[in-house]
Amino acid sequence: MAESVETFYDDLAESYHLMFENWSHSVARQAAIIGPILEQYTGKSSAYVLDCACGIGTQTIGLAERGHILVGSDLSSSAVARAISEARTRDLDIRFHVADMRDLSNIPESGFDAVLAGDNALPHLLSQPDLERAAVEIAAKLKDSGILLATIRDYDQLLLTRPTMQAPAFYEQDGKSRFVHQVWQWQGEQYALHVYITLETESGWKVKHFDSRYRALRRSDLNQALQAAGFHDILWLEPGTTSFYQPIVIATKRRSHME
Questions:
Q1: Is-above-0.85 flag for pTM?
Q2: Is 202 exposed, middle or buried (0-12, 13-18, 19+ CB in 10 A)?
Q3: Spatial separation of the C-alpha atoms in residues 101 and 73, rounded to whole Å
Q4: Quick one: which of 212, 242, 252 has its CA closest to 120?
Q5: Could you give the CA distance from residue 125 to residue 121 in angstroms, rounded to a whole number?
Q6: Which pLDDT tens digit goes with each residue over 193-226?
């Protein structure tokens, strides 16, 4: 799992922003939705947050600009390098680390109010033991009563239809067109994801292809892993309520009985 996911995001890091009509606008738009939810469930206007699947900084940067104290980590060193550059461009003080969410021990910081795992990161963990390991690692980074906030596709619904394609999105920039689409190749309750970014250039059309693998992670399986790691009060917030493009799950770390 680690090698293929790491390679996917290493390869994609330079082009990741091209999947959005305007990446900077998406950074701000996502922070405007996730920020108030984070503030509501941590009870803080400036929470201490670990984004353990930070990528190039899509959520990390927007939340830092909103006034939260961010630490970012990701399996992909190339994505982290891009996130560092994007943060510096915006004069943001964010510490970044390269770390697999199944082993966050090389991140020196701890005692977070919240750990964030956005953009459907958890379903890269293809087995239940890997998911459970990540949940334990996330819990260890949280203070008592800290929260996990994750965003994830609605796989309970997607498994009913097993779509094979995400419709193309067409964008214009600097007089040139591009379109982005995905192909999903199902194998049981996993699928190979193929991302295609087709760019209009001076010399003609150029296609970039990236592929990885996901588990169609059912809510019951994620709930079970979180409960086993010591989380409770697991809440699922639907897009119709939040206006976010994916369901959001929030889970609270149980208080320690040791005083």
A1: yes
A2: exposed
A3: 8
A4: 212
A5: 8
A6: 999 999 999 999 999 999 999 999 999 999 999 9
